[in-house]
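quick q for whoever's on today - can somebody do inverse folding on this one?? i tried earlier but teh output was garbage lol. C-alpha cells:
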C-alpha cells in the first residue's frame, strides 16, 4: 500500500502525518507555523519531509486561503498574508521532492466528513471548523462546492455587523472586532471575548484554561460560551437562508468539548423559533467525526482524486 505525507498548515501549527492510502495514520506530529514569510514557512516544512524521506509517494496539503487545487495555486493564504497567487504546489514539491496537491482547509474537512464521517448520508451539508478563524466547507449535491473562483465556504468573512461593514468602505478603522463572523465563531474569537470579559491580556488564556474555568462554574466563562452559541446561531441562520442545508458538522480542536456543539445546537433551535416568518427548517447540528484529523484525511482524498491514485 502506498504511503503519503500529509500536511495541515494552520495559523498556529503545521500538523503532519504519514498516512496509508486508506486514510490510516501511521505517524503524526506538529511544528509551529511561522507567519513572517514564504521562506520561513518552507524552512519549517523541509525537515518534515527529511524525517520521512523515501517513505512517501506524494504529499497532500491542507491550507487556508483561496486555493485552485487543479492548478496548485494559492491565490490567498488566509493568515499567511504573504501568499498571493503563489505556485504553492510547485514550491512544496521542490521542498519535499514529491508530487504535491493542495486544497483549502475547510474544503478538506468537508471532504473527510462526506467520505465516511458526519456528512456521509446527506446530500447537502457543511462543516464549520473552529480554529484561528472560521474554516468552512460546503457539500452540495454530494460534491464539495468550490465556487466560481474557488472561494466558496469562506465563512470567516461572513458579516455580523452590516452597518459597520458598510462604513468600513470609507473608513477601514470600522472593520474592527465583532464585525465579521470569525470575530466570534472561532476558537480564537471565543478566547478573545473571554479575556476581554475578564480584563486579561489578549492571548493569555488557552482553550484548556477556559474550559477549566467553565467546568468550575465561573460565571464569565459560562456567559462567554452562551454568547458564543448565540452568535454562532445568528450566522448559521443566515447561511441556512441561502443554502437550505440538511446538516452542519462542527469541527476544530474545541469541538472535542461536547458543550461546544450543544450550545450551538440549542441556540440554533432558539434562533429559528424566534423568527416566526422563517421559511426554511433548521439544519441538524452535529460534531465532526474526525475532529483535528479531518483536514489531513480530506487532503489525502483530494490528492488521490487529482492524481488518479
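ok took a stab at it. sequence:
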Amino acid at each position: 500500500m502506498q504511503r503519503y505525507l500529509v500536511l495541515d498548515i494552520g495559523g498556529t501549527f503545521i500538523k503532519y502525518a504519514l498516512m496509508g492510502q486508506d486514510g490510516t495514520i501511521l505517524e503524526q506530529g506538529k511544528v509551529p507555523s511561522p507567519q513572517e514569510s514564504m521562506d520561513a514557512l518552507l524552512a519549517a516544512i523541509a525537515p518534515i519531509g527529511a524525517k520521512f524521506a523515501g517513505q512517501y509517494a506524494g504529499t497532500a496539503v491542507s491550507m487556508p486561503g483561496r486555493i485552485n487545487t487543479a492548478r496548485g495555486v494559492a491565490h490567498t493564504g488566509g493568515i499567511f498574508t504573504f501568499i498571493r497567487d503563489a505556485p504553492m504546489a510547485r514550491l512544496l514539491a521542490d521542498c519535499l521532492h514529491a508530487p504535491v496537491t493542495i486544497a483549502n482547509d475547510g474544503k478538506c474537512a468537508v471532504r473527510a466528513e462526506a467520505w465516511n464521517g458526519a456528512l456521509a448520508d446527506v446530500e447537502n451539508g457543511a462543516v464549520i471548523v473552529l480554529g484561528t478563524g472560521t474554516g468552512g466547507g460546503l457539500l452540495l449535491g454530494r460534491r464539495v462546492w468550490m465556487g466560481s473562483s474557488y472561494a466558496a465556504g469562506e465563512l470567516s468573512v461572513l458579516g455580523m455587523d452590516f452597518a459597520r461593514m458598510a462604513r468600513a468602505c470609507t473608513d477601514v478603522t470600522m472593520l474592527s472586532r465583532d464585525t465579521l463572523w470569525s470575530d466570534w465563531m472561532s476558537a480564537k474569537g471565543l478566547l478573545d471575548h473571554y479575556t476581554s470579559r475578564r480584563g486579561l491580556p489578549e492571548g493569555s488564556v488557552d482553550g484548556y484554561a477556559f474550559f477549566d474555568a467553565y467546568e468550575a462554574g465561573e460565571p464569565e466563562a459560562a456567559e462567554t460560551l452562551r454568547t458564543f452559541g448565540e452568535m454562532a446561531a445568528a450566522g448559521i441562520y443566515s447561511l441556512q437562508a441561502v443554502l437550505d442545508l440538511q446538516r452542519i458538522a462542527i469541527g476544530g480542536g474545541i469541538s472535542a468539548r461536547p458543550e461546544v456543539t450543544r450550545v450551538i445546537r440549542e441556540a440554533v433551535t432558539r434562533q429559528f423559533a424566534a423568527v416566526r416568518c422563517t421559511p426554511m427548517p433548521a439544519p441538524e447540528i452535529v460534531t465532526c467525526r474526525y475532529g483535528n484529523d479531518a483536514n489531513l484525511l480530506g487532503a489525502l482524498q483530494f490528492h488521490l482524486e487529482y492524481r488518479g491514485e
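fwiw The chain has a mean pLDDT of 94. also The longest strand covers residues 13-20. so keep that in mind when u check it
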